[in-house]
Amino acid sequence: MNTNIKQLVQEKYSEIALQSREANQASCCGSGCCSTDVYNIMSEEYNMVQGYNPDADLGLGCGLPVQFAHIKAGDVVIDLGSGAGNDCFVARAATGETGKVIGIDFTPAMISKARHNAETLGFNNIEFRHGDIDDMPVTGSYANVIVSNCVLNLVPNKHKVFSEIYRVLKPGAHFSISDIVTEGELPVKWREVAELYAGCITGAVTKTAYLDIIKEAAFANITIQKEKDIILPDDILQNYFSAEEIAEFKNSSARIKSITVYAEKPAKDERKCCEPGSGCC
């Protein structure tokens, strides 16, 4: 099942990576247009953010995690699910030429697009690595900051991702992650629609479960930095559900939200066990 989900996500995001920026923008909901795609209706405006590069913005995020990430000059920053490099370029503006930014993505087409963007900009301290974020191609205790924008909801084993984040962060380091969560239970049919998984909705867990996973991974000072409701337009929902099913969802207590979460790896590990991911923790 997990393999099938990963294949679905990889195929969909390979397709998105190969689209022109104009075609991708045309599919998002904005003033004067309607959307038939769920992939980029949740993104926020980066236009005023230092380091923003339009060619790297595919409109696939659900927050602005780098703005909340407390990145300092010289930091090593890792972006999980880096796509075309949008958040990496913003992170580089904060970490400067003395720092290093690593983007990790498991879609080869995205890696290729991100590398092209970095080369075009002439940045030599940004690196894009192909790999799974639940098994990162990074040595332990390496990063000062980890960021991610609307990606972890696409990963079936979220416990393993946060275990990997813990492993890769230096003691005392931190992450800031924007992601999709739910409040209440989504209808069963939502879980059966593959397109909604690749669109970041079906793969979301409840906010309480999400925060519990972070706590179980032994992170400290867990803080929700930003939270907002995600409203899916009817023209998207009617692609998958009947009018009655849409009305039932809207009248239920279930909600879809974007949250940006901050947490720290303790400077000293008091668990008296080995690092997560090593098989004994």
What would your notes on this structure say?
The chain is built from ten helices and seven strands. A seven-stranded mixed beta sheet has the order 3-2-1-4-5-7-6. It is α/β, with parallel strands linked by helices and 281 residues long. The two termini are 25 Å apart. It has a single domain, classed as Vaccinia Virus protein VP39 (Rossmann fold). Helix 1 runs parallel beside helix 4.
User: Would you report the number of β strands?
Assistant: 7
Helical content (DSSP H or I, runs of 4+): 25-40%
Backbone structural class: alpha/beta
Taking the alpha carbons of the first and last residues, their distance comes to 25 Å
Strand content: 15-25%
The name of the CATH topology is: Rossmann fold
At the fourth level of CATH, the homologous superfamily is Vaccinia Virus protein VP39
Order of helices and strands: HHEHEHEEHEHHHEHHE
Largest sheet: 7 strands, mixed
Shape descriptor: globular
CATH class categorisation: Alpha Beta
Looking at the overall shape, the CATH architecture is 3-Layer(aba) Sandwich
Low-confidence stretches: 24-36
What is the typical, i.e. mean, pLDDT? 83
**Given the structure, what is the number of helices?**
10
The tally of domains stands at 1
**What is Rg?**
18 Å
Strand arrangement across the biggest beta sheet: 3-2-1-4-5-7-6
List the helices and strands and how they pair.
Blueprint: H1 2-18, H2 21-26, E1 76-80, H3 86-95, E2 100-105, H4 108-121, E3 126-130, E4 143-149, H5 158-168, E5 169-183, H6 188-192, H7 194-198, H8 207-216, E6 220-229, H9 234-237, H10 243-250, E7 255-264
Parallel strand pairs: 1-2, 1-4, 2-3, 4-5
Antiparallel strand pairs: 5-7, 6-7
Helix pairs in contact: 1-4
